């Protein structure tokens, strides 16, 4: 779809936000599709989120992505939240409609599942039990996506048991919350384990988990992409497990956003992935 009459604008709102690789990703697509436009990082304090979202339409933005700490607060600000985002409990993408109203959706679930499919051909959510570590916004998107893909058993673990139980109670089957003390044993017989916490991210402590009971045929996944290999993934790789980092989740969640903003569904190519990897 050509847009010869206007300069296209989108961005990502967060606090902080300058570490984000989203501008590189989206500006690559502008260039690839020969479009005049720009995707910019928008450092927005939590108290300024409502004003910032309200300025999108007057400034000519097609929409924006949201990152920490705005994904839940934005649900109270936009005019409409779709069923998917409401189910997950967070917004990752805002679309500015023709009348200036704002709609919110969540593309993290799409990004996670498509990354796994792209990196691990033949992967199936129903291949066996899946252990998910963490109970924040990322975990909600991952659990929702896995359940929708047909997972029959999701073992959800979090340091604060009440948060994990809250998700399990809200989502229902196949999610079962387990106490943090059972995290090592919860890996027994698992076909997949996913870290959705910030543990292992640059500047954060490593994830406190022992992989001894994880079957060697299991897949270990992390939604972190800085660094590309967290200590958790490195430990899994060294013992023979397949691993997938979170970069592809970032790249793939941009595709439905572009479809909503500009009517184009771009591709996540090996060239794009390599370009972003070189900056990490």
Q: Give the class-level CATH name of the largest domain.
A: Alpha Beta
Query: How large is the radius of gyration?
Result: 19 Å
What is the CATH architecture assignment of the largest domain? 3-Layer(aba) Sandwich
* Biggest sheet record: 6 strands, mixed
* Total helical elements: 9
| Shape annotation | globular
Write the element-wise H/E pattern from the N-terminal end onward: EHEHEEHEEHEHEHEEEHEHH
Mean of residue pLDDT values: 96
- Can you tell me the residue ranges where pLDDT is under 50 for at least 5 consecutive residues? none
Structural account:
With 280 residues, the chain is an alpha/beta fold. The chain folds into 2 domains: 8-106 and 251-277, Leucine Dehydrogenase, chain A, domain 1 (Rossmann fold, 3-Layer(aba) Sandwich); 109-245, NAD(P)-binding Rossmann-like Domain (Rossmann fold). It has 9 helices and 12 strands. The strands form 2 sheets. Strands 2-1-3-5-6-4 form a 6-stranded mixed β-sheet. A 6-stranded parallel β-sheet has the order 9-8-7-10-11-12, with helices on both faces. Helix 5 links the parallel strand 7 (130-133) and strand 8. Helix 4 (108-119) crosses helix 5 (137-148). The radius of gyration is 19 Å and the shape is globular.
């Amino acid at each position: 779809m050509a847009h010869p009459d206007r300069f296209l604008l989108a961005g990502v709102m967060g606090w902080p936000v300058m570490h984000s690789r989203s501008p590189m990703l989206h500006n690559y697509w502008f260039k690839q599709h020969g479009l005049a436009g720009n995707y910019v990082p928008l450092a927005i304090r939590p108290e300024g989120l409502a004003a910032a979202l309200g300025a999108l339409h007057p400034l000519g933005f097609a929409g924006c992505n949201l990152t920490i700490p705005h994904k839940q607060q934005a649900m109270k600000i936009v005019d409409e939240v779709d069923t998917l985002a409401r189910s997950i409990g967070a917004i990752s993408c805002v679309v500015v409609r023709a009348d200036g109203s704002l709609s919110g959706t969540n593309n993290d679930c799409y990004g996670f599942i498509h990354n796994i499919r792209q990196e691990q051909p033949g992967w199936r959510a129903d291949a066996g039990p899946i252990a998910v570590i963490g109970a924040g916004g990322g975990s909600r998107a991952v659990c929702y996506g896995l359940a929708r893909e047909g997972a029959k058993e999701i073992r959800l673990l979090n340091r604060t048991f009440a948060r994990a139980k809250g998700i399990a109670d809200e989502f229902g089957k196949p999610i079962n919350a387990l106490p943090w003390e059972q995290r090592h044993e919860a890996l027994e017989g698992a076909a997949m384990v996913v870290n959705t916490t910030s543990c292992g991210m640059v500047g954060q402590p490593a994830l406190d988990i022992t992989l001894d009971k994880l079957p060697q045929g299991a897949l270990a996944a992390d939604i972190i992409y800085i660094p590309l290999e967290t200590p958790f993934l490195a430990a899994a790789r060294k013992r023979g497990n397949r691993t997938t980092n979170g970069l592809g989740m970032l790249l793939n969640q941009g595709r439905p956003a572009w479809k909503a903003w500009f009517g184009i569904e771009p591709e996540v190519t090996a060239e794009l992935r390599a370009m972003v990897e070189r900056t990490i």
